[in-house]
Amino acid sequence: MPSRTASRPPREAHVTTTANKIDKHVGSRVKARRQELGISQEKLGNALGVTFQQVQKYEKGTNRISASRLQQIGAVLGVPAAFFFEGLQELATTVPGFTERATAPYMPEVISTEEGLQLIRAFLRIPDQNVRRRIIELVESIACQPTLPR
Question: How far apart are CA 95 and CA 79, in angstroms?
């Protein structure tokens, strides 16, 4: 009787123990949405039937989230599973001649920081569209200035 390992396909040569960029991106989107709703890791874990440590691992990208679990997380957080993949175009590797790079950069790091979330929340509370437009112009002009030495 042949052994089970004999029929197994060869293992991928590039095995890594670090979190994959896509896993990190999906995890950062879970974290950002959880924080946006003011839900603790423990409360999300309880809703999913896992520990808060498992939620931490999902958010860091250390542990991959299965499709069914991602669907469950989306249901708890009130978003479709596709929400967690938004902005992945920038992380995608391209094969010359087959795809083009996305034109606008997407920065998931902003929404996964407390300052970024505070800025977004405050900005969205401004009712006047002209004021919001002027704030964007101000921030862009500040961002274009060279950094001053301290």
Answer: 31
